[in-house]
Amino acid sequence: MGLHVATPWIQDWARPAFSQKGITRDVARRPLKAPCDRILALVGRDARDFLWGALMPEILGAVETRTNSKGYVVAQVGSLNQVLTFQSPSRAAVHEFYHLLGCHHGIDKEDAYRQVRHMKELAASNRLQGRDFFPAMSEKGRVYVSRVDVDRRFGIQPPERAAKTGKGIELVKAEAAAGVDVVFQYNIGGEGGGDWHCVITDGSCRVVAGAHEKPTCTLMMGAVDFLDMMNGKLAAMQAYTSGKLKIGGDIMKSQLIEKLFKY
Fold first, then answer.
1. Cβ(50)–Cβ(80) below 8 Å
2. Residue 44 structural domain
3. Are strands 204-209 and 143-144 parallel, antiparallel or unpaired?
4. Which of 115, 131, 153 is the last residue of a domain?
5. Is residue 12 part of a domain?
6. pLDDT per position in the chain (263 positions), as tens?
7. Is residue 10 one of the residues assigned to a domain?
């Protein structure tokens, strides 16, 4: 097919569930980080998998169908299902890679090759337009030409979006912000992160890039966890108690976050 697959990064990932639905949902909500064009989670095995495979239907790999850009593969043999069906991790990986290229279930080899050629043509066109991204295609044929387009399909907003607009009043609950005077400094690590501060003064909210001289409190966390918190998928208290969120300064004032912001 003339395709070269490179792995720009590998990171630890805690499997969130045993079911295909639970695993796929978790992978889908993770943002695409440049230079990544696809996400493929590799699922490990333990004794619980053998029991699950004996009692429940087991899916050895899947790709979400909204964009066909994020999925998983069971990367180790550890269930009765795998042993009896001879479904090796490598075979499952090849199968899911075709889905990551927009190939649907039930098509034959020739149709699959035509789809891959079509995707290569879309990729060439994308490069000519200055976009460094191998396009994705949904189950229904919708084409996504950038990482932002893909992430937007899942409601994922980049951390820098609010900072670039400089507007924050729409982010806070006006009634809760009345009479409040605080400055939250956000130090977000990892790909897509940076430093921003949010100034809330008597019902108004302003987001500014960079560090504030005297913030009320400073919140430090990774970009992925920050996105989860801002999208309402991770409670601030849960993030703090799990160590994903570190707070400096007035810790008591940081408890206002969940009361002030619209998630």
1. yes
2. 20-153
3. unpaired
4. 153
5. no
6. 577 888 888 888 888 877 888 889 999 988 888 889 999 999 876 656 555 555 555 678 899 999 999 999 988 655 555 555 556 778 888 889 999 999 988 888 899 999 999 999 999 998 898 888 999 999 889 999 999 899 888 887 665 554 444 444 455 666 666 778 889 898 888 766 788 888 888 777 777 878 888 999 999 998 888 877 776 778 878 888 898 989 999 888 877 776 776 54
7. no
